[in-house]
Amino acid sequence: MVFHHIPVLLHQVLEVLQPRPEGVYLDGTVGGGGHSAAILEKISGRGRLIGLDQDPTALAAAGRNLASFGDRVTLVRSNFRRIGAVVAELGLMGKIDGILLDIGVSSHQLDEAERGFTYRMDAPLDMRMNPESALTAAKLLNEAPEGEIARILRDYGEERWAKRIAQFIVKRRAEQALERTGELVDIIRAAIPAAARQEGGHPAKRTFQALRIAVNDELGALEEALPAALEALAPGGRLAVISFHSLEDRIVKNFFAEQARGCLCPPDFPVCACGNRPKVKIITRKPLVGSDEEMQANPRAQSAKLRAAEKIG
Ligand SMILES: C[S@@+](CC[C@H](N)C(=O)[O-])C[C@H]1O[C@@H](n2cnc3c(N)ncnc32)[C@H](O)[C@@H]1O
């Protein structure tokens, strides 16, 4: 099967990572290998790339699409939250020149109806990027307390009807367990008052996004990965993160800001007593976004934000 996914902010990624020949790069979300192929082309010679993905279908596609680069590519099936362990196992701790995380779901995953990521086609309520993980969207919706479902829809989907949708879900599951995306779409339509149903696109869009983030613990994985990625970098190495959600962007922004701080002493201390030194230099004061052309050509680029920082030696 062809892996359909256009890499976002490709030009900006190459600009901030500045891949150099003979460098070692890690793509924590290799997907179909779009960004990885572009990095590998820049690091002709002895440069190496490690590609991680938790989705075996994506990893297989990356294997096919990056085959021409031969043994310069190492693909590892792993959640990027384990980046530290993966890099240590490869004997590359503190030696990586650049790391990219292009988080979220790929167009290919959305197109595979049976994965349950999309509200556009009826399918099992799955939404797992890692098909071996225990939590599916169906399990979450059938077992989580009503308040927790409402919180997920509100916090991760910014769904203003979160409470009502959660109420409708809990009422429905008391009669019959939820199994299909089509059933969930019907429940959402019934829960949102008719006048508000078309506000902000498809009425199920926000709920599906929120469930996907919760099922895959996307924010938890990012929070764990950032410090581990920084540790894995060589001095002068760069970490670039593309996010698609304001909560993800905030996690990246705050992490870079904390790591870029020097002295942590109270402002009234005459001399520094903590000895803390900045661990990174921020490269993108403001997040980089796509050009108008890219946003028109690729709807995923519309919400993409790229932030990057360099590890200080
Ligand atoms: C937006 S796509 C990446 C596309 C890739 N940059 C390309 O150009 O083809 C995101 C990929 O990251 C994977 N992914 C998302 N979260 C992950 C995580 N925590 N650990 C490992 N892989 C993850 C998904 O399975 C998906 O294949």
TrEMBL record:
<feature type="region of interest" description="Disordered">
    <location>
        <begin position="291"/>
        <end position="313"/>
    </location>
</feature>
<protein>
    <recommendedName>
        <fullName>Ribosomal RNA small subunit methyltransferase H</fullName>
        <ecNumber>2.1.1.199</ecNumber>
    </recommendedName>
</protein>
<dbReference type="InterPro" id="IPR002903">
    <property type="entry name" value="RsmH"/>
</dbReference>
<feature type="binding site">
    <location>
        <begin position="33"/>
        <end position="35"/>
    </location>
    <ligand>
        <name>S-adenosyl-L-methionine</name>
    </ligand>
</feature>
<feature type="binding site">
    <location>
        <position position="53"/>
    </location>
    <ligand>
        <name>S-adenosyl-L-methionine</name>
    </ligand>
</feature>
<dbReference type="GO" id="GO:0005737">
    <property type="term" value="C:cytoplasm"/>
</dbReference>
<keyword id="KW-0963">Cytoplasm</keyword>
<comment type="function">
    <text>Specifically methylates the N4 position of cytidine in position 1402 (C1402) of 16S rRNA.</text>
</comment>
<dbReference type="GO" id="GO:0070475">
    <property type="term" value="P:rRNA base methylation"/>
</dbReference>
<keyword id="KW-0949">S-adenosyl-L-methionine</keyword>
<dbReference type="InterPro" id="IPR029063">
    <property type="entry name" value="SAM-dependent_MTases_sf"/>
</dbReference>
<keyword id="KW-0698">rRNA processing</keyword>
<comment type="similarity">
    <text>Belongs to the methyltransferase superfamily. RsmH family.</text>
</comment>
<keyword id="KW-0808">Transferase</keyword>
<feature type="binding site">
    <location>
        <position position="102"/>
    </location>
    <ligand>
        <name>S-adenosyl-L-methionine</name>
    </ligand>
</feature>
<dbReference type="GO" id="GO:0071424">
    <property type="term" value="F:rRNA (cytosine-N4-)-methyltransferase activity"/>
</dbReference>
<dbReference type="Pfam" id="PF01795">
    <property type="entry name" value="Methyltransf_5"/>
</dbReference>
<feature type="binding site">
    <location>
        <position position="80"/>
    </location>
    <ligand>
        <name>S-adenosyl-L-methionine</name>
    </ligand>
</feature>
<feature type="binding site">
    <location>
        <position position="109"/>
    </location>
    <ligand>
        <name>S-adenosyl-L-methionine</name>
    </ligand>
</feature>
<dbReference type="InterPro" id="IPR023397">
    <property type="entry name" value="SAM-dep_MeTrfase_MraW_recog"/>
</dbReference>
<keyword id="KW-0489">Methyltransferase</keyword>
